[in-house]
# Entry
Amino acid sequence: MKVVKESSDELNPSIVTTAFIGRAPHERSVRDYVALAVATCGVGLIPLAPGTWGSLVGVGLYLLARAASVQAFVYAQARGWSTPPLESLRTTLVLLMLIVMTIAGIWAASRCESLLGRKDPGAVVVDEVIGQLLTFVFLPVGSGAWAIVAGFLAFRLFDIWKPYPIRRLESLEAGLGVMADDVLAGVYAATLMSLLTTIYLLF
# Structure
């Protein structure tokens, strides 16, 4: 049976030939509901452009993390600590957090495919959240609003356009395929943002 791949906000959804049978709500376990909560991030069931809402959740999480980083930097500088090591530590902690979130996202997305009876269900937006957060990894803490807007647009562009080899990663098995394409889109967007930030700081 042919099933439309429901990748969030995709312009040209591909067709897969794997059949899925969804699980009825009364058959769901606690783990199933945890997987749904992780995978949808509270916005995946919004009917219009769930991937964009997922990206906005990523932006919101980034802004919260940045506000906490600013407070930590103020505290550290008041005690005479050097800023560059703190920046490096912040980046390391963010990357570790993203690794943990990605592993959890792979598990949740895999489980949700069987729960919802779809390949890469549109309701699964944890991949967009992680890809969007990855976009901002190398931004300096004091980056202006332009960087937030540009980073959001850059990730949405790469996530929807899917330049090589992003689209090919969707064919990977279960949750790995769900997550991998958005992680690479986030890497592309992060690279672009690093370049734009460098140009901005130079000129």
Remarks:
- The longest helix spans residues 83-116.
- Residues 15-19 have pLDDT under 50 and may be disordered.
- Strands lie at 3-4, 15-16.
- The radius of gyration is 18 Å.
